[in-house]
UniProtKB/TrEMBL annotation:
PANTHER family named among the record's database cross-references: PROLINE UTILIZATION TRANS-ACTIVATOR, REGULATORY PROTEIN GAL4
One biological process term in Gene Ontology: DNA-templated transcription
InterPro entries the record matches: Fungal_SecMet_Regulators (IPR051127), XnlR_reg_dom (IPR007219)
High-level lineage: Eukaryota, Fungi, Dikarya, Ascomycota, Pezizomycotina
All copies of domain Xylanolytic transcriptional activator regulatory, residue ranges: 95-167
GO terms for MF: DNA binding; zinc ion binding
Superkingdom, taxonomy of origin: Eukaryota
SMART domains per the UniProt record, alphabetical: Fungal_trans
Swiss-Prot/TrEMBL keywords: Nucleus, Transcription, Transcription regulation
Listed name of the protein: Xylanolytic transcriptional activator regulatory domain-containing protein
């Protein structure tokens, strides 16, 4: 069995065990928290579930022998698959190393340039897809780890994947190019988001809202260009799950961009015992971020109910934690400042229900042996503790609204971007109104 095939077989084994484990779980396990005391039993059960798939995968990695002096396209494919599977299994630095090797070899082979016309049409299409896959794996993993990608070019010399001029028989050898193109665009816009957040953390930043508006407009354009089925869902597996993952990644870009600002407000409220009003810009930012978290949380709950959540994977855990963190921060801010968000009583009740169910899913993932989920659950508990402190400030006697004869004095809160660097990053990253520029009124 060829090495790429062995790695694929191992990955399929892992996926099939995920699906079997998910199918065996009752809906009740999603709707209520699982006691952590049974973690040993859960770990043993998860080890048994994953043993076959992991065995093949580890055997494939042991046989991984890349010819760096005379690399082939197959070598790039094998490294892409190894990197992707390592990240799913929370081996993030291994994934980063494999991704870097993959995209460098692909660049060295010239896969980022149009293929020679001497090659068959089928092979040219294949080389293009392998390049863009390496590009996406490199970008996804590096941005998640806050590290530089191995390939910093834009790949502008090569157009997006397509199936033009392929026969019907040849098309059967490829997955449709539309969703891969959507992932490429999401990787590109996520890079813009990371760069924007970095700019906003600089002490000499000027016109921060203009910088934010430009990035939000870029996200809006990206959302318009994504296929409609990304948000409506595909017809069947695996397309429906791929569409859900793309929607999660798109919404996560909004959270990654706006969460630092939400954290700034949260920290401000913790440190200042005064009544504040939020500027229109901050109010808008807060609502966009909250809507993004709601959207992703709902997608993940639907996946859990359908048995399509990758309980032992990193990405679903990260997206779930990110959404829950925003939801609990928003709830604490509303307790302290009822007008911090545009919410009705029904919205708040729905958010509380979503949070409760989402947290139960994260607890269950941690209980069944997901190492990333255990880390995310610990981080979420820390956020909850800070939220409890903020709620207590509102309820305690030391909260002192300042009143004067003309009414209650307030302080309008603006962004102090110099303080961003001191805010603790909470690792990991749905947008309301796709097709609507949320900052158009500025």
């Amino acid at each position: 069995m060829a090495l790429p095939s062995l790695l694929r077989f191992g990955a399929c084994g892992v996926y099939n065990h995920y699906q079997a484990a998910n199918s065996a779980s009752s809906d009740g396990a999603v709707a209520k928290a699982i006691p952590i005391e049974g973690s040993m039993e859960g770990s043993l059960r998860s080890e048994e579930m994953l043993s076959t798939g992991l065995g093949f995968f580890e055997h494939g990695l042991a046989l991984l022998n890349i010819s760096y002096e005379e690399p082939t396209v197959d070598d790039v494919e094998a490294l892409n698959l190894a990197s992707h599977c390592c990240y799913i299994l929370n081996r993030r630095m291994s994934a980063y190393a494999y991704a870097g090797q993959s995209v460098r070899l692909a660049h060295g082979l010239g896969l980022d340039h149009p293929a020679p016309t001497s090659l068959s049409n089928l092979e040219r299409k294949h080389r293009k897809r392998v390049w863009w896959t390496a590009f996406c794996v490199d970008r996804m993993i590096s941005t998640e780890l806050a590290l530089h990608p191995a390939y910093t070019g834009l790949g502008s010399e090569l157009d997006y994947p397509d199936s033009s001029s392929l026969t019907d028989e040849e098309k059967e050898q490829f997955f449709g190019p539309v969703l891969l193109t959507a992932l490429i665009k999401l990787c590109e816009i996520k890079g813009d988001v990371v760069n924007t957040v970095s700019r906003l953390k600089q002490n000499d930043i000027t016109e921060p809202y203009q910088v934010l508006r430009q990035c939000l407009q870029g996200l809006d354009r990206c959302g318009r260009e994504l296929p409609g089925r990304v948000f409506s869902g595909g017809d069947s597996l695996p397309e429906s799950r791929i569409c859900s993952s793309l929607a999660l990644r798109y919404h996560q870009c909004y959270i990654m961009l706006l969460r630092p600002i939400l954290l700034h407000q949260f920290t401000f409220m913790l440190r200042n015992k005064r009544v504040i009003t939020l500027s229109d810009e901050l109010y808008t930012i807060s609502n966009i971020c909250l809507q993004a978290a709601r959207s992703n949380a709902c997608i993940l709950l639907e996946l859990a109910q359908a048995g399509e959540l990758v309980k032992y994977g990193y990405w679903d855990s990260a997206h779930l934690f990110s959404s829950l963190a925003v939801l609990t921060i928003a709830q604490s801010m509303r307790n302290h400042h009822p007008n911090a968000f545009r919410c009705t009583g029904e919205d708040m009740s729905r958010d509380a229900d979503t949070y409760s169910k989402g947290r139960a899913v994260l607890v269950h993932m941690a209980y069944t042996g997901n190492l990333a989920s255990r880390q995310h659950l610990s981080m979420l508990e820390e956020v909850e503790r800070h939220g409890t402190v903020l709620s207590a400030l509102n309820a305690g006697s030391d909260t002192i609204p300042v009143s004067v004869s003309t009414g209650e004095a307030t302080t309008e809160m603006e962004l102090d971007f110099e303080g961003w660097a001191s805010l603790r990053s909470m690792s990991d990253q749905a947008a309301g109104g796709v097709g609507v520029d949320p900052f158009a009124f500025l």
